[in-house]
Amino acid sequence: MKAISSVSGRAYPLGRENIDTDIIIPAKWLKTISRSGLGEGAFETIRAEEGNIFDDPEYAGSPILIAGDNFGCGSSREHAAWAMADLGIEAVIAPSFSDIFSGNAFKNALLAIELPQEAIDRLMEVAKSDPIHIDLENQVVTTAFQDRFPFEMDPFRKNCLLNGLDEIGLTMQRDDAITDHEAGLQQGQPWLVPAQ
Question: Domain boundaries in the chain?
Fold first, then answer.
């Protein structure tokens, strides 16, 4: 997993509530186990609307999405986080997230930042013309207009995101303990260790 400490840039001012994972990536795109190419299908139903923000050149390549309450509800498809990452989105700011989406976002280094609705309303306005900055280390979202919105982050998740640690990375941090354990098995219980 890549390490992430901050995200800066323009933001898609979506603001809609109850965006479920089928809106993020429709089921017809789930026939792959590849993470690449899913950005093409991301938010397909919204992109079918005339004048949608995802196809507006002003927001092209925006790394942040400002969303409404209950973002990522619906099914547990991890493809939703993959599709957003493939579209170039590195962070979502919303009043709340579904638990499953939040977990999938974390496992894919996609920041899911919860802020109160008043902050979302302000960021929706800023996003129409100016960039937004997310500082994970200091847990604050800022704008060029001196707005400062602190957010909470689980310390374990924050550490993993800042250091790029997924399950494999966390396991590899314990490499010495694993090696010592295996050596102890070879000496004390050799019948448990397969012959080389």
Answer: 6-188
| Cβ count within 10 A of residue 162 | 15
**pLDDT digit string, tens, across residues 126-136:** 999 999 999 99
State the CATH architecture for 6-188.
Answer: Alpha-Beta Barrel (3.20)
DSSP string, 94-135: ES-B-HHHHHHHHHTT-EEEE--HHHHHHHHHHHTTS-EEEE
Q: Report whether pLDDT(153) > 90.
A: yes
Contact criterion met (CB below 8 Å) for 114 and 70: no
pLDDT at 196 (0 to 100): 66
Task: Report the C-alpha gap between 172 and 195 in whole angstroms.
Answer: 24
Full-model pTM:
0.88
Cβ atoms of 152 and 139 closer than 8 Å: yes
Q: What is the DSSP code string of 141-192?
A: EEETTS-EEE----HHHHHHHHHT--HHHHHHTTHHHHHHHHHHHHHH-GGG
Helix (H, G, I), strand (E, B) or coil at 53: helix
